[in-house]
Amino acid sequence: MSRDVFEKASALGKSIIESEEFKEVQDRERDMIGNPDAQNLLKRFHELQQLQKEKQKKGEQLTAEEAKEFEQVQLKIVENRTIKAFSDAQEKFQNMMNQVMKIIKEASVNTIKNKE
């Protein structure tokens, strides 16, 4: 029985990797990695995010200048087409995976109900 489950899980994994949603995420990720503007924005965002976390641990807040820069970087990220395309592709892929999990859950619930 377990062997059948593992074979089906392997087939599902292969189907996911071959899906358009997965391929789109990979393509958009490559685009993002190859885009210096996107990389610089993300790098600065993570630096400011880390600074904010460190200050919060000390009970401090970002300075007005740091907060303004953080806000500006966030806006630029939202406006960046390359980052947006990657984010949209990730969202579509996540929606597909949520549907897959829903189907698996429903199948297991239905199987249990049918045995009762």
From TrEMBL:
SUPFAM superfamilies, per the entry: YheA/YmcA-like (SSF158622)
Coiled coil: 38-68
Keywords: Coiled coil
InterPro entries recorded: Com_YlbF (IPR010368), YheA/YmcA-like_dom_sf (IPR023378)
Protein name: Cell fate (Sporulation/competence/biofilm development) regulator YlbF (YheA/YmcA/DUF963 family)
Organism listed in the record: Desulfallas thermosapovorans DSM 6562
Source taxonomy: Bacteria, Bacillati, Bacillota, Clostridia, Eubacteriales
